[in-house]
Specification:
Layout (H helix, E strand, L loop, with lengths): L9 E7 L5 H10 L13 E3 L10 E4 L8 H10 L2 E7 L3 H17 L9 E6 L13 H6 L3 E6 L8 H13 L13
The chain binds guanosine-5'-triphosphate (GTP).
The site of guanosine-5'-triphosphate has 20 residues, from helix 1.
Length: about 180
């Protein structure tokens, strides 16, 4: 049995290969518009409780492998409550890296008895006219910590707020049984 407290804040981290649109997703959420030129890494942002659907303050953390060491990325995984692994739906290699690299890396940096929820995020659906979600169920079966898969577009703002909302929900209303014995920061 796993005893994990429901936190009073939700810390979301975005992982994934370079160029999949992590920074764009964060900035599209915050500004409600898409800009072609984004910085390599978004500043950590805090969304106040009163504008989140679950009324819980939410921190969103971007990762940029060209600006951070892998040790710093590992530290951020350890601090996060939920991990969004982003891939680009038009680039198969970015999806392949989820099982060959990112999910094992996340497991390595989570406590053995408590796997943090993971959301798989297929970004850039504006570039294709089919759904790739069927290719992802196998991953979810192999890795039960995958809470859900979502397709979105930072460019057209499709499912962007839903993606962050789902990440929040994965922490606050976990699918897998998690028993709260006390609150923690
Ligand atoms: P790193 O900083 O290298 O880790 O990349 P990143 O994952 O933060 O990607 P970034 O947000 O910098 O986006 C990479 C490129 O993809 C940019 O040219 C974006 O404009 C573009 N892009 C991001 N999201 C979308 C999207 O939903 N659709 C399309 N068509 N392009 C996108």
């Amino acid at each position: 049995m796993v005893y994990e407290a429901i936190p009073r804040t939700v810390r979301i981290i975005l992982l994934g290969e370079s160029g999949v649109g992590k920074t764009s997703l964060i900035l599209s959420l915050v500004t409600e518009e898409f800009t072609d030129h984004v910085p390599p890494k978004a500043e950590e942002i805090t969304i106040p409780a009163d504008v989140t659907p679950e009324q819980v303050p939410t921190n969103i953390v971007d990762i940029c492998l060209t600006e951070q060491t892998i040790e710093q990325v590992a530290e951020e995984i350890e601090k996060a409550h939920v991990i969004c692994i982003v891939f680009s739906v038009d680039k198969q290699d970015t999806l392949d890296k989820i099982t060959s690299y990112w999910l094992p890396f996340v497991r390595e940096h989570c406590p053995e008895d408590y796997r943090k929820p993971v959301i798989l995020v297929g970004n850039k659906i504006d570039l294709i006219d089919y759904s790739i979600i069927d290719n992802i169920w196998d991953i979810a079966e192999e890795y039960p910590e995958v809470d859900r898969c979502i397709e979105c577009s930072a460019k057209t703002l499709t499912n962007v707020s839903e993606m962050f909302y789902n990440a929040q929900k994965a922490v606050l209303h976990p699918i897998h049984p998690i028993y709260s014995i006390e609150e923690q920061e």
